[in-house]
Here is the input.
Amino acid sequence: MPLRKYDSRLRSGDIVLFTRNGAPIYHARIKIPGRSGHVTKSLKTADYAEAVANASEIRDELRQRVRQGLSVGRYTFADIWKMFIENEGKKSLSVHRLRYLEGTARRYFLPFLGDTGIADVTDLKIERYWDWRLRYWQSAAGKQKIEKAERGRGGKHGRVDKPTARRSTLGNVAKRPSNKTLQMEQTALRQVLGWAHRRALVNRVPYVKAPRDKSKKGVDRRPAFTVHELVVLGKKLTRWMDEAGEKPPKRPDGRFGKPRVALHRPHALHRWQRTMLFSYVLFMAASGLRPNEARQLRWRDVRYERNSQGEYTVLTTSHSTKTGSREVVCLQAAKASLERVRRNSDHTKPSDLVFAHRDGTPIQFLGKTFKKLLGETWVVYGASERDVREVGEGEPGAHRLLFDPTTGDERTIYSLRHTYATIALQKGKGMTYDKLARNMGTSPGMIFKHYHHATVREDADVLSMRQ
Here is the structure.
C-alpha cells in the first residue's frame, strides 16, 4: 500500500520519503545539515526497503559534497573538475602535469564550461568551446586580460627587478593557438571527462576533437635555428651581454650634478641577467633538454667524463620531469655554458639549482626575454643556407629572427631543443633516430615525424641517383 505524502521520516527527520499522486515510486526530501532548504530526489523504486537504502546513500553523498565545497544540486563541470583534481590529479599526476591542468582549466575550461551542468556538456557544447577558444585572445575579454597583466607587477610596465615578483606570461600567448596547444587541451578534456564516465558521473564522454589549422596541414617541422642562424644569434647575445658591462657616460653637469636627461644605465642585475640568458641559450642548444628539465637541473646532476675521444658532459634529469630520470650526453659546447653560469652564480652547492635567481629559486624570466631579443634581431638570407647576416630593421628583405622562415611559426626557448635535434641528425656521425630519441627522452617515431627533413640532404646522392 503506497505511503501518504510525508508519511515516513528517517534520520531524525533529515529524510522524508513520500509518493506523488498515488504513484508507487518513492521520492525523498532530504535536509543537509549546515545548508538551508531541501533537496528532492526520485528514488526510482516502489520497494520501501530499497527506497530507504537509496535515500540514505544519497544523503551521505550530499553531505560529502558539502564537506568538499561542491554544490548539492546537479553536478556542474566545475564540480567534476574539482573532484577529479582532488581524487585523481593530486594523487597520481606529476606536479608539472597538475600545474598544466590547473592553469589550463583556470584560463579556458572553467570560464566557458564551469557553470554548465555535466549532462549538458554535449558534443555541441564542446564544439562551441573550440570556436570560443580559437578567438579568445582576440576577443575583448582576452585583450583586457593582456592589458591588465601588462599593468601588473610582472607585466610590461611592472617591476621585474625582483626574482620573487609575480611575472605574467600573457605577453607570449598566440592570437591563434597552435595545433599542438589545442591537441594538449583536447587530451586534458578527455582525461577529466573519461574519469567522470568511469565513475558513472556522466552517461557518455562527448566527442572531443580539437580543430586543426589547415594551413599547417602536412607540416610537422618544428621551428628551429640553423647552425648559421645560431651563429648570428650568438654574436647578438655576446654584444647584448657586453653592452650591460659598459660604463655609463659622464654626467653633463659634472660628477655630482644632476643630468639634464635621465640616463638609462644597466646595473649589476642587468649584467647578471644577460649573462645568465646568454649561457642558458647556448646550453639549451647544446643539450636538447626540455625547458622544465633544465629548470630542475642541479649541480649534482652535472658531471664531466672522458673516453678515448676526449671529455664530454653528462646530465641526469630529475625523476619528476615529463619522462622521468635519464642520462643525457651533451654537445661539447655545453661545458663552457655551464662553467660560465658557475662563475656568475652564488649557488653552486651540489643541491643548488643550476639556473636560479640570485635567491636560489628557479629562474623564470628567460623565455619572455629571449623572444623579445629575437623580435629585435633582423637578418637577411642569401642564396645559400650559409648566407645569413644581421641587418638593420629597415633594410630590404629584412626578416625577424623571431619567426622561422620555413614554417612562419614563432621561435621560443623550446626551439633550441628542436635546433639540437636537427643539428645532431645533420652533423652527428653515426647518429640514428633511435639513439637521438633515447638521449632526448622521446620515441624514434616522434624524432622521425618532426625531424626527418634534416636527413634528406644527407642522402642526396642516393635520392638523385647520382651514385
Observations:
- Confidence is low (pLDDT under 50) at residues 1-6, 153-167.
- Residues 77-216 form one domain.
